[in-house]
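Q: How would the structure tokens look for this protein?
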Amino acid sequence: MHFVQAKSLLTKWNGMNIYRGCSHGCIYCDSRSDCYQMNHPFEDIEVKENASELLEKILRSKRSRIVIGTGSMSDPYQHCEKDLGLMRKCLELIDRYEFGASVITKSDLVLRDIDLFDSINRKAKSVLQMSLTVAGDALSRLIEPNVCPTSRRFEVLGKFSARGIPAVVWLSPVLPFLTDTEQNLRTILNYCADADVKGIVCFGMGMTLRRGNREYYYRALDRHFPGLSRRYRSSYGNAYALNSPDNARLMKIFHTFCEQRGILHSPDDCFRFIAEIPDRQMSLFDL
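A: Here is the predicted structure in token form.
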């Protein structure tokens, strides 16, 4: 872990990353790709120690309320967040200035801040986004070794939903020849329905690999699933998009399930829901 004084924080899409790099160890992580030009080891977390100061300046200058998103590149609930508390400081500012917040995470540390997400949701909007990739905990611990397993994430989703805080699940990536089975898909979908999620983001039954994360992924396959990386190379070569051979059938199951249960299942619909802040009803204090 090392600290930097960042010059900027928000992207043009109102996203922020207070950490760069990750300690979760997911074997498929696209953020390892060379194209992101990270100039330090991925597990050496870069900490933007002035993130809350930058965020407050931004929020003070905003004339309309927006949803501040985080977690698209690096999980904001890194292990170091437990001691540093930078994410909590940012949430406190978002709550104070009555903006919205959306977080993508795999960590149950997000429960520490459920009080703030609750308050933000009552004043504007908050959305919990969690990745559910593997139905079974044993396989989850192999391919996502340093983060809570899927069953625990399901519990977290349920706790947020019980507070009326909407949740969206990322069903991504789906790993060919590993998690692209009907049983894995249906178990995750049932988790989503039981947790009363608002939407599921799924770009297809497959994954992406680029230089940097491809090599890391194949080394992990060689450790845990000998011979599987050869099957990948034979099937996909150096392709960027690796669709499951069963993609069409599994996607039909996915869409049918979501339609029957009223779950948003188009990525555009999910993203639109996440970004929208409902009009605040006028109270006596506004008169």
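The radius of gyration is 19 Å.

Residues 24 and 146 are 5 Å apart (CA to CA).

Upvote if useful.
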